[in-house]
Amino acid sequence: MKAVLRKFLQRLLYGKPIIIVSGLPRSGTSMTMKMLDAAGVDIVTDELRTADEDNPKGYFELERVKDLEKEADKSYLKEARGKAVKVISFLIKDLPSDNNYKILFMNRNLDEVLASQAKMLVRRGETSETADEKMKELWENHLWQVKYRFKHESNIEALELHYKEVIENPGEQAARIAKFLGGLNAAKMAGVVDNQLYRNRR
Q1: Burial of 50 by CB count in 10 Å (0-12 exposed, 13-18 middle, 19+ buried)?
Q2: How many domains does the chain have?
Q3: Distance, CA of 124 to chain centre
Q4: Is residue 179 in a domain?
Q5: Quick one: angle between helices 132-152 and 110-124, nearest 10?
Q6: Which domain, by its residues, includes 70?
Q7: pLDDT tens by residue, 176-191
């Protein structure tokens, strides 16, 4: 009861929640942003990072968000209330507490994430200095911490999605998003999911 009352008071104090699309890199966050965009959600992006071979449908990013860990003044995020912003999972801990958040969190098989990242690094002429097994261990620990935060931060509501399920059952997963956020057109969201982009399967 206390938790429900606290959420109610926070909603009154901080207004509409910011919709956060998050997950590890290469977990389907750009796809989810495109789904929200198709449903008419206002997307916060500076369009500095344009579509490329790795993300042919676009990235939908706001460059400034990448400095959340360093910035002292994060008040600009208040302008994103009622809108959607993509925030990498490593920066969830740096979201300011004076907002409400509804988080769509993308999960993906870690072997697929590794394969996708490896291809992206090759295209950029870069290499990873961390062995795959060590990287998976680090990611698993990180994801546990993020999801612990979801359960214990009163200003956060989270809906977990799985990349494979969104690709294979876009209508069903879009309906889950529509119910979680309220009032969105699930058919429009499902219509932009492109299973041809599921290129790194386990």
Answers
A1: exposed
A2: 1
A3: 23
A4: yes
A5: 120
A6: 2-192
A7: 999 999 989 999 999 9
| Buried residues in 55-89 as b, exposed as e (16+ CB within 10 A) | beebbbbbeebeebeeeeebeebeebeebbbbbbb
In angstroms, the CA 198 to CA 202 distance is 10
Please tell me the number of Cα atoms within 13 Å of 161 on its side-chain side: 33
Structure tokens at 136: 């998976």
DSSP 63: G
Whether the pLDDT of residue 164 is over 90: the answer is yes
> Does residue 52 belong to any structural domain of this protein?
yes
pTM over 0.70: yes
Judge whether 77 and 85 are in contact, CB under 8 Å: yes
Q: Where residue 56 sits, what CATH number does that domain have?
A: 3.40.50.300
Q: ∠ CA(105), CA(76), CA(142), 5° rounding?
A: 30
Residue 78: predicted pLDDT: 94
Report pLDDT digits (tens) over 8-64. 677 777 789 999 999 999 899 999 999 999 999 999 998 777 656 666 666 888 999
Token pair 């290129």 is found at 199
Can you read off the two tokens belonging to residue 193? 């999911």
Any domain includes 202: no
Residue 197 lies in a domain: no
